[in-house]
Amino acid sequence: MHDANANRAAQTFAPLTASAVLVNPVGLHARPSVKLTQLAKRFTAKIEIALVADGPWTDAKSPVKVMRVKAPQGATLHFRVAGPDSEAALAAMLALVHDGFGEA
Amino acid sequence: MGEIHLTGHPASPGLAIGPVAVLTTEVASRAAKGDPAHEAVALKAAIEGAAVELAKLIATVHGEAAEILEFQVAMLGDDALAEGAYEAIAAGTAADEAWRAALDAEIAGYRAADEEYFRARATDLVDIRDRVLAGLNGADAIAKISGDSVVMGDDISPSMFLAADWTRGGAIALAAGSPSSHVAMLARSRGAPMVVGLGPLPWNGQPPSLALVDGDAGIVIFDPKPETRRLFEHRMAAANAAQIAADAGRFEPALTADGRRIAVLLNVAAPEDLAGLDPAICDGIGLVRTEFLFEGSRGLPDEDAQYAVYRRILEWAAGRPVTIRTLDAGGDKPIAGLTVDGERNPFLGLRGIRLSLARPEVFRVQLRALCRAAVHGALKVMLPMIAVPAELDRAKAMLDAEFATLRAEGVACARPQLGIMVEVPAAALCAEDFGAAFYSIGSNDLTQYTMAASRDIGAVADLNDAGHPAVLALIARTVEAGRKRGVEVSLCGDAAADMRLTKSLLATGLTTLSVSPIAVARLKAAIAGVIA
Fold first, then answer.
1. Do A70 and B114 touch (CB under 8 A)?
2. How do residues A37-88 score in pLDDT, each as one tens digit?
3. Does the CB of A27 have a partner CB in chain B at under 8 Å?
4. CB-based contact A64 B299, cutoff 8 Å
5. Residues B440 and B490: beta-carbon distance below 8 Å
């Protein structure tokens, strides 16, 4: 029930998916996780990440959950984005990963 | 209660007077537990309080330290962290128990990770856990340390020390602890008086309210009589006047009474130590410890992070020589995920260069960062805990290989001079056999290995005497080897900042001493009084 908004978003907007390889030196560790979640929170779309294309999916707006993914360097990070600003959100998330979270 | 005198070991010089702040090492369990709604509110308040504390702390630190804390704030601000705890509270568990269990489960997840970087994050979660627990139980250890407090406890962690502001006075008085601990080192560089090894503190319940700390003599007086306090304040005023007089001379080159020029270099534990310092007070940096880069709770630093820090230090020095020591982990400086746990005698184990050679994948990253930084100044690299020439030779081959690789990749780089620390008696006795570009005597370890008295054990601290003739003979022998080989010899241990030893050290022929920034003025004044 508490997830009603997210469900509605998912129903109304077909999810977009894409993936990018983690190129920064140590994967999705502390600083990149913070950057990723901060960026994700700027969009209203539901944004999720996964290590394989069919999930399990993790809320990209939760640093605690993103850290639990423990995505290492070289891993492929899959994104699933649904919502009114999903295109902009997906482009921004991919750019952050390609850019090595500004660390490379 | 009358005044109480306790005698321990001096760990950081200076005099201080201030209110007592007692550190509680154990977080007491909460007296009472309320109904689930009350417990949930208590937990929420403690979490928010911890986030506010962290935000305040972030404002006082920079760089790496700030980023570590920002990560903690992000984690605390995420409801997912406390989800399990709130569920347990709803089922009737007390807030502190519920929080501890939820965080312990999270921590276990990190500790089980394949990647070292994630395993190392467990420390952050422990920090978060304990900060919230302290808030829940009303024991606010860190916030109690105000600018001028005398911090009392069994021992104090480096992160607790760094969390307090020492620029407005304050001192440390410990029941246990060691003059050679990391905190003691930090206290000396920040100018905070510190006394360790005071033994069990002789009061039950109500601690004293005021303390006088004499970091020169190793004495702490609690709840002083008015007359005692008055005399102490006189001494403080006199010491301040002497410091001001010495400060006036700190921009002058160090000369002995008979005109011999002595180079005075700085020991630096982190780039923050250089903040606000004018490089003109010194002839260069004699020791940059690099352990701080590896100690954060963020795992092993990558090449770019190391390069950025080394470059900052070289740029600060503005052309003066800078000696950076490669990672000196092990012994009393364990690093999670790198040093060996459970060694029976870590001081005689895999530490310093031995560990670096055993973990070449970590060492290579540091060597590459150093070669890249070397284009920004006069960089010298020194290897800790060298015992035999083969260790230097292997490290040299690795340095040359990394330098060649960087050059082949077209990366801007230079090959720094490579020297050794002389801190193992074998290296001092056979110093001439090493093809080192310089020798830097590490008097702390040289003393403990020569006297067979640990730096960490208060009961044998008297034997740990850098002024013992045996230690001075090893120093003289190293100086002589340097003279024969035409390479520089310096001394960068605590002995350099012990003004009682200045005369004996200069008598060995040493012409270069390296001390923490706070000791520069006093050392120059002491040198001026020596006829060598």
1. yes
2. 999 999 999 999 999 888 899 999 999 999 988 888 888 889 999 988 988 9
3. yes
4. no
5. yes
